[in-house]
Write a structure and sequence with these properties.
Elements lengths: L2 E5 L3 H13 L3 E6 L2 H11 L3 E5 L7 H11 L5 E5 L4 H10 L3 E4 L4 H11 L7
Parallel strand pairs: 1-2, 1-3, 3-4, 4-5
Helix pairs in contact: 2-3, 3-4
């Protein structure tokens, strides 16, 4: 399926996302805790998809998305957000995010977001 980079400042969320994505048949190439780490790991691994927490210390998810898009304008990035972050979500979509997942996370939300971000991989 897809090689995925998981970016979230919360270790528990990273672990949960990694487990769910791997159960779905994807390969998590790396996990990043910060935006800077995500940029470095993106350059190193060139993943098919990035799941990106929108609120992180230092570079937030939108700033990190913009930096990754400078490296690879075709990067597929799915934002992960909580209620009340609509302004940041819209900024991320305008900056090139392929979609978003609203917390709490679930397998169905992950499947739906990946399907919407990469429909061609599913023959759609």
């Amino acid at each position: 399926m897809f090689n995925i980079l998981v970016v979230d400042d919360a270790k528990m969320i990273r672990r949960m996302l990694t487990m769910e994505l791997e159960k779905m048949g994807h390969y998590v190439v790396a996990e990043a805790e910060t935006g800077r780490e995500a940029i470095h790991l993106y350059e190193k691994h060139s993943p098919d998809i990035v799941t990106m927490d929108i609120t992180m210390p230092g570079l937030n998810g939108v700033e990190t998305l913009k930096e990754i898009k400078k490296i690879d304008k075709t990067a597929t990035i799915i934002m992960i957000t909580s209620h009340g972050e609509e302004k940041l979500v819209m900024e991320a979509i305008v900056a090139g995010a392929k979609g978003y997942i609203l917390k709490p996370l679930s397998k169905n939300k992950l499947i739906d977001a990946i399907l919407r971000a990469c429909p061609e991989a599913y023959g759609l």
